[in-house]
Design goal:
Blueprint (H helix, E strand, L loop, with lengths): L1 H23 L3 H10 L1 H10 L4 H18 L4 H34 L13 H8 L15 H23 L4 H21 L11 H17 L4 H21 L3 H15 L7 H12 L1 H21 L5 H37 L13
Helix pairs in contact: 1-3, 1-4, 1-12, 1-13, 1-14, 2-3, 2-14, 4-7, 4-9, 4-11, 5-7, 5-13, 5-14, 7-8, 7-9, 8-9, 9-10, 9-11, 10-11, 13-14
Length: 359
């Protein structure tokens, strides 16, 4: 199992690092100095680093389909528990990170007023806790807040589809055909239509193309050789059609992620490499959540040296960026161990709820 999930872990680990480096190229005086020193590298991270989110979307669809497949027999009863479990998996660590970001913002506000919220009120915090901040057009309290809400929306949408099909009087073999067909239609609708409508980027349907691609990849793996080949060809044709209709670099990243998942068949590598990749993947969500308050503090320290001669200050920028990146990774370990992991142990069990009649 570890070798089978190694490509997913590797993709998640690399994507998390790119997101951190992207934000370091966007926010604060360190980013400004780096753009002057290394415009090509920093410009690439600024423009393309954020597309690592597509990797998370494809992986999210794959792993969600895998989790729901394990619950298929009791999905009619366990769907509410699964939704509650996903909320608990995402939101309490997210809100802990929001609290740390607000604390960092309070500390750095005199030096970096442009990087901190203009004001914070209870309704704003509640909107974040309910993952409604983008839908209510509330100012985000930390970077990446939009993705946490979208992740939950996407899981809820896939869960709703699978639950609805489970409630229909369908044989298992029929449902195994209908489920990919329904998800495939919604995936195509997203890629060909809704993903081209920028005003929908606060809704799951905008991102379901990449997420559905991951789910379809998971189902393809359980099919016969001929059916799997036909399914992969169909997915390739769909992605090609979407790119011809409107070229979007984010879709190229999603397609390449799918190719890696589909083609990486064997060879887990040495044990030390597996352990390292799995460790980085295990801490990926913690890194995603905790890196911004760390970046705020390092940027504030860098800005505090603003009275230094310009050449000396510019020379410190690469070191400051590397320090922020390294400290973010270091902070992710205790955040996962002391906040994320304990909360995971307290999350609702994904077992079947008491049976109720569905009419």
């Amino acid at each position: 199992m570890a070798s089978r999930l190694l490509p997913l872990d590797a993709l998640r680990a690399v994507a998390a690092q790119l997101i951190v480096l992207h934000h370091l190229s966007v926010y604060g005086p360190i980013a400004e100095a780096m753009h002057g020193l290394f415009p090509l590298l920093t410009g690439w991270l600024y423009d393309y680093g954020r597309m690592a989110v597509q990797v998370f979307l494809v992986l999210g669809g794959y792993l969600s389909a895998r989790a729901l497949a394990a619950q298929d027999a009791q999905l009619r009863q366990s769907a509410p528990a699964l939704l509650a479990q996903r909320y608990w998996r995402l939101v309490p660590p997210f809100m802990a990170a929001v609290g740390l970001t607000l604390l960092s913002s309070w500390l750095v506000a005199p030096l970096l007023p442009e990087l901190v919220p203009s004001q914070v009120h209870a309704a704003q915090i509640l909107a974040h806790a309910l993952l409604l901040h983008d839908l209510m057009e509330v100012e985000a309290l930390t970077v990446g807040a939009w993705y946490v809400a979208i992740d939950f929306q996407l899981f809820a949408l896939l869960l709703l589809l699978m639950w609805a099909l489970r409630c229909l009087p369908l044989q298992r073999a029929t449902r195994a055909i209908v489920a990919p067909a329904v998800v495939g239609v919604l995936c195509a609708a997203s890629l060909l239509k809704f993903n081209r409508m920028a005003d929908l980027d606060a809704y799951a349907i905008y991102f379901f193309g990449a997420y559905g691609l991951g789910a379809l990849l998971f189902w393809c793996q359980s099919w016969s050789t001929g059916a799997r080949r036909a399914g992969l060809i169909a997915l390739g044709a769909l992605m090609t059609a979407a790119l011809i209709l409107q070229f979007r670099e984010r879709l190229v990243v999603a397609a390449l992620t799918a190719v890696v998942i589909a083609l990486w068949r064997r060879g887990a590598g040495p044990r030390w490499l597996q352990d390292g990749v799995q460790g980085m993947a295990r801490h990926a969500y913690a890194l995603f959540l905790i890196h911004f308050p760390v970046c705020l503090l390092v940027n504030a320290l860098y800005e505090h040296r603003a009275e230094s001669p310009a050449p000396m200050l510019d020379a410190l920028a690469p070191l400051a960026l590397l320090a922020a990146w390294a400290l973010s990774n270091m902070a992710a370990v205790p955040f996962h161990r002391w906040i994320e992991a304990p909360l995971l142990r307290w999350r609702p069990a994904a077992t079947a709820l008491p049976r109720v009649a569905i009419r």
